[in-house]
Backbone:
């Protein structure tokens, strides 16, 4: 029986090599007051920074430019908003990775309301955001978070009492997403690997989520096929392989749609407290945890064959299999090995690189949610998973 479901709206999607050239025309449709947010280096590394900024200026646009150098904090968002709240910004544009797009999404959502962002954050704030915003255009330069498709901006305050929480509203889905694989060609190896593992985690988690539906299943499975075909290629030869960059851009885009509509699982459940307590890039958390989380998930599901996620993991295992096997369990075991293999090939960082050690695990686990993961783990099992990702 197909479950009842709701599917959120999508941005207008402009996909293809060279699509960055349409940005000035689209921005101009909203007016001449444009605030652009970029990463400190991503837009310029791509060699397209000047081209994009000059293109906007030549379109009779009054351009203001802010840099976002790290995952956005409440202070960063509030500071930018306080500078532009009454200065006639008619559209916000974000060109960068997930951090830049989330910062842009949050700024566009805060320009028309009265208070600072903390008051509107999920689980933390005391106010419900009314959904009013300045139009927002997202142009990713990495393939990972899928923020160009999502209705939430992730905001982090790092420290002892740190958090990683979302500003979320259906209206925050970007108005336009311009996805140009040429913008990702010069993405660094490390960022290609970690952001790719974020997209991979989002696709696999939403595929087996307890709230998945036929719509998200179709996209998640197609996204996983792109990951299988293109993730290692994008890492190994991404500076010249536009096809691999395009495949990963599609995978990331689909992952944003599926996470919005089907939710996520335990990898992202761990990511919230870890990203609050430590300066760990989100993709690095996903990279370190995807293999151990799904290895233990497979072990559990082998004893729960009537769980709908069991069949789905068999299907995903077949997507990633290089061989034909007789038994479903052989595919599942091969998938566990494949996840380890991909993690090794990508030379992913272990979490100890960012200061995580055994003494902190209890606190992280206490604040970890399973989200919509199809199986549940005991405290001891969560400890074992996290421990194996420390290195
Ligand atoms: Fe993610």
Residues:
């Amino acid at each position: 029986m197909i479950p009842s479901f709701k599917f959120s709206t999508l941005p207008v999607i402009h996909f293809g090599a060279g699509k960055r050239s349409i940005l000035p025309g689209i921005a101009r449709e909203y007016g001449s007051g444009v605030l652009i947010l970029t990463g400190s280096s991503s837009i310029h590394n791509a060699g397209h920074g000047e081209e994009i900024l000059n293109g906007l200026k030549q379109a009779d646009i009054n351009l203001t430019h802010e840099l976002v150098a790290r995952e956005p904090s409440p202070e960063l968002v509030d500071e930018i908003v306080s500078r532009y709240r009454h200065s006639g910004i008619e559209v916000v544009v974000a060109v960068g990775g997930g951090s830049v797009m989330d910062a842009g999404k949050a700024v566009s959502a805060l320009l028309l309301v009265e208070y600072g962002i903390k008051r509107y954050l999920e689980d933390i704030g005391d106010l419900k955001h009314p959904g009013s915003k300045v139009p927002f255009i997202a142009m990713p330069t990495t393939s990972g978070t899928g923020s160009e498709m999502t209705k939430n901006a992730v905001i982090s305050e790092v420290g002892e009492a740190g958090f990683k929480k979302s500003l979320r509203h259906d209206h925050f889905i970007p108005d336009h997403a311009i996805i140009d694989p040429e913008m990702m060609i010069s993405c660094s190896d490390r960022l290609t690997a970690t952001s790719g593992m974020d997209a991979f985690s989002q696709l696999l988690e939403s595929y087996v989520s307890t709230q998945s539906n036929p719509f998200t299943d179709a996209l998640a499975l197609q996204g996983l096929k792109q990951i299988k075909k293109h993730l290692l290629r994008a890492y190994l030869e991404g500076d010249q392989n536009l096809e691999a960059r395009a495949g990963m851009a599609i995978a990331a885009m689909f992952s944003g749609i599926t996470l919005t509509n089907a939710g996520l699982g335990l990898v992202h459940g761990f990511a919230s407290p870890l990203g609050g307590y430590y300066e760990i890039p989100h993709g690095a958390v996903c990279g370190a945890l995807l293999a151990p989380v799904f290895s233990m998930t497979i072990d559990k599901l082998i004893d729960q064959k009537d769980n709908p996620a069991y069949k789905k993991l068999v299907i995903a295992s077949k997507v990633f299999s290089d061989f034909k096997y007789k038994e479903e369990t052989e595919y599942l075991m091969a998938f566990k090995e494949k996840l380890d293999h991909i993690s090794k090939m990508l030379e992913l960082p272990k979490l100890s690189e960012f200061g995580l050690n055994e003494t902190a695990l209890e606190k992280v686990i206490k604040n970890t949610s399973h989200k919509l993961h199809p199986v549940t783990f005991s405290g001891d099992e969560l400890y074992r998973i996290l421990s194996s990702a420390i290195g």
